[in-house]
Amino acid sequence: MAIKTYLQAISDGLREEMRRDQRVFLIGEDIGVYGGAFKVTQGFQQEFGEDRVIDSPLSETAITGACTGAALMGMRPVCEMQFSDFVSCAFDQLVTVAAKQHYRVGTPVPIVVRLPSGGGFSGGPFHSQNPEGFFAHCPGLKIACPATPADAKGLILSAIRDPNPVLYFEHKHLYRRIKGEVPDGDTAVEFGKARVHQEGSDLSIITYGAMVYTAEEAAKAAAEQDGTSVEIIDLRTITPWDREAVLASVAKTSKVIVLHEDTHTSGFGAEIAATIAEEAFETLDAPVMRITAPDTPVPFSPPLEKAYLPQPGDVLAGIERLAAY
Amino acid sequence: MAVAREATPVESAEDVKQADLDSEDLLQIYRNMLITRGIEERGHILYRQGKIPGSFYTGRGNEGASVGVATAMQAMDVGTPIQRDMGVHVTRGTEPWRIFAQYMGRSDGLAAGKDGNVHMADIRLGLIAMVSHLPALMPVAVGAALAFQIRREPRVAVAWSGDGAMARGDAHEAMNLAGVRKLPVVFIVDNNQYAYSTPNRLEFACDHLADRAAAYGFEGVVVDGCDVLTVYREAHAAIEKARAGGGPTLLELVTLRMEGHAVHDDAFYVPREMLEHWKEKDPIERHRRWLKESGVLGEAVDDEITVEVKKLLNEAMKRAEESPLPDAADLDTGVYADPEELDTPHHR
Predict the structure, then answer these.
(1) Does the pLDDT of residue A307 top 50, yes or no?
(2) Burial class of residue B317, CB neighbours in 10 A (0-12, 13-18, 19+)
(3) Is A99 found in the same domain as A56?
């Protein structure tokens, strides 16, 4: 067990899996000589060579399509979108080709797409987005959104070993800010199993990714303020997502906030809220509340971006409203 | 300004010898072209009989192009044929009865009813199933070539596109990546001069699509797609060059789409005289004539092959009609793969 940053944990997971499995290779823009825009793959080309750590042209379609082709030939490709925003350029390769190949003709496509996502640094409309909702709507893809260093490593290992196309969203704001214990060795984390980030009894917050920490800060403030006990469920993966864990928490607390950094309309929170309404209506003591980014592009200037991203204060206000309901 | 090389036609027996084909190969090419056209003609009948749901696409006029390229591929090679390339499936060994079952949405179709028409492929025969969004499989073929290069395997990927699909970005990104890494891939453009109703002059402004290859750092060749032997010779040379580490080639195979985009389309926008002109160039008739003139095919053998193909296809149609329709309970199976499915020779 060692204390690692979220970024080191991703790096460790990739490195260990590349050492263990010769079929794993990396491809992306500036990931080799430069070590990646965020340095996740720093030193990889020296260790694994130019054949297994490939600096590609600026071509998200070619990168993603090439991963599918290599996967069909028995490789285990992992590609990097330099920023998750650029996955829009690979949409067809993921949604049209990779996601549907197994259903159509029975050939598995074991690829991983790494997607540095999320805002908080004035990245503006094209370097800050959380596009997981687009892909959660597409059958055939799997989606991981780790929040802790242990999960960052455990889920990248599972993603590479999964026989399906996996989108692995790594939140940029967590890269160097979040440190935590990461178990040594082969510690794959199963997809579809949520984690109770903190136990509570008055209210549940269902969330994932960086918003786990926003929820934590708000919950701490609520506890200090009036002793409100908040349970935080970290989904870890949204395709598949752990309905049982969510419904169990709702049954326990009867009040629920669904929180994400993605925009509001048709965000993944809508799916969670609808499922709670369908499956747990009788156990609810208040309407399901969604706290999300508004339906706007991600703005650039700090005051605008701060207003865009759900803040601990917004979540605390939500907790107060629901607690009083 | 045209920069691509224009392939000279294969004419003499000496040319054929250089193309590395013996009599049996030449007859097998003939047989495969007949089976290809026969499958599509019978498919059209099944469609009119209401036995094929959805739409129906044929590749009439492209039999020489598709069979010629596939004949030049080795068993270990892989490819991503598109909707006019039935000859690739036939040449690689896809059983005709399964193709009819595919057309009719039956359980024994290559997509078991989950997808239809030419959206099929048998990965065990080295073929990867196309999608409608052409040429989305071009980058996929490039990825297969990348795997071969990483593993130092002497295998080649063949990527297909059409004249219309070459206007899309996937084509550019795929060829650029392949050129940069000198990958063992051969790009084929089935240029049948019409993308649905849109003629070449509204799809591209260069003289030949093969001219573009120079911009990616490899050779482009314009080939008469109605001449199966020339197609074979050029494909063979390009594939073996790629196998030897010489990088990609772009082959533009020029034909005319002799029927509509799909069977609902009467192709009124294709000038009659153009169709008449290209009918004279029919790839099957041309090869038959060449075989006869060269003494490879006598009347008796021709009759024998014709009867044999007819029997094969009639039996195939019958067997396909006996294949059950899929069970509605299978609707949600197969959306995700299970881990044990990776434990195949293919995925190793």
Answers:
(1) yes
(2) buried
(3) yes
